[in-house]
Amino acid sequence: MVPTRPWSAPEVRLLRLAVAALLVAGTGCGPIRGRTSGVPEPTGPGGDGVSRPVLPACGESSRALTPGGGLLTVAGDFPPATRPGDTTVTGTVTVTARARVTGLSAPVAGVYVAREGRVVATPVASDLIGVAVTLAPGASQSFPATGSLEACPATVGGGGNAGPLPPGRYDLFAAVTVTDDAGVSVTVTGGPWPLEVG
Predict the structure, then answer these.
(1) Cβ–Cβ under 8 Å, residues 120 and 158
(2) What is the DSSP code (8-state) at residue 15?
(3) DSSP code for 109
């Protein structure tokens, strides 16, 4: 029998970081259900805040991705168009804090692609090790962001991909989740940013 020992604080933080990265990455076509996507939002003096709805799955309304007032804001920098044959779109997402925020996050932002108000492509699956987030009020941190241009199944809960997105105008949204030492996760969203798929 192998002797066991209690986990050290750095080991516990690393484990939480790995779990947070998996929660943010999802499974490639739709988020993990039951997670809230809202950073607690101000409700006036003494308010405890509220959470926004869960992140949408394939085929669902993109309304939940519309940013609201909260402790974090998101700015995105993406190309205005893609070329024929591109399977991804790559940009940068910058998160800015309105109050002090610390925790762990996946090293990449999740990118959603929507058309006519419906999610047609969800974040690319990733198993990357997370990064520390420590933001003072007004401070920012940037994350690379890659979105899939492969359509997810039109029917929510379906399997596999439906092939490349047809040419046309789309909207990009981004989501970044930060998990604190207590295991509490908050997600901030940004967008829409227009994208012309060639």
Answers:
(1) no
(2) H
(3) B
